[in-house]
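Subject: AAA family ATPase structure
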Amino acid sequence: MENYRSLRDLVLPLSRLTVVTGPNGSGKSSLYRALRLLADAARDGAVAALAREGGLPSALWAGPEATGRAVREGRSAVQGTRRTKAVGLRLGFSGDEFGYALDLGMPIPTRTAFNRDPEFKRECVWRGPVLRPATLLADRAGPVVRTRAAGGSWGQDPHPIGIADSMLTAFADPRISPEVLVVRERIRSWRFYDHFRTDADAPARQARVGTRTPVLDHDGADLAAALQTIEEVGDADELRAAVDNAFPGSRVRVEVAEDGRFGLSFHQHGLLRPLSAGELSDGTLRYLLWVAALLSPRPPELLVLNEPETSLHPDLLPALAALIATAAARAQVVVVTHAQPLVRALAAVEDGTALLELGKEFGATVLAGQSLLERPSWHWPKR
């Protein structure tokens, strides 16, 4: 990530289960939003997502292009300087099979009312973990895209593309570039959950007509249907264990009314009758939402959770950590949190948990303890 809010220049190694932590203001929320923005590109939604943030100028790194030695040594205050490089917001990722990077910049002013809309300056899809000319599979420069043919040679004629369109949507065609299609579908499978509503009018508290729901919606409105789907086509034993682990002796049932509406019935040890979703405490309802999200019968390529500990009692964090570890056995998981009890609980239940602690240096987010030699190899495509 480069030039997105406080993420001046950040390259992070991700494991099967990665926990990102750090003090308030260290850039955790910016990291979560950067991942969502990268996922939006696969749906041609990056420009609209930036517009909701106030446009590209509002999302760009607000500090100087470079921090001088005198500033670093405390002999001078930070001074604004004229930029000598093209301004761009860059996001990307790579793995063993494929890599992808995009570079969004400001347009050349023209007679249009949309001069604040960012343009795709560069996009690249490559094979393997490191971008090199020999590994490029699809290369976009401004309004044209080149793709490799089946034999490995570049196609004769470049393909035109709109300056606000991502090649992940325009060229995800197996006849043009099957690799771009694979990368797009993998990114589109990424799943994000952030602050489920649990207030009195929360969608999760309402009975709704249910359909098979292998993936819980981001607002939790289909909670009852998602839990019933896990019961029927997912791992019902894990569902029961997750509830009992948090609330010993308790169980959840889904009641289906004659009109097809699904409602929750929470049977708790010591009570004479079950509780409906509308009667559950905020913490209990939120935990059940995490159960439905993390035990999905259709796991994603990447699952990103933003502060899942919100409104949960500390006693529930070990149970939540066990749920997250179960999800990490099926999908790559990134957890963004500032709750140290959850960090400790995750480290206790999952040996392979990677802990990334963010901090700030001269306003820029940095990974604590990461030296230049420890930084993963990464190269941006040049304009």
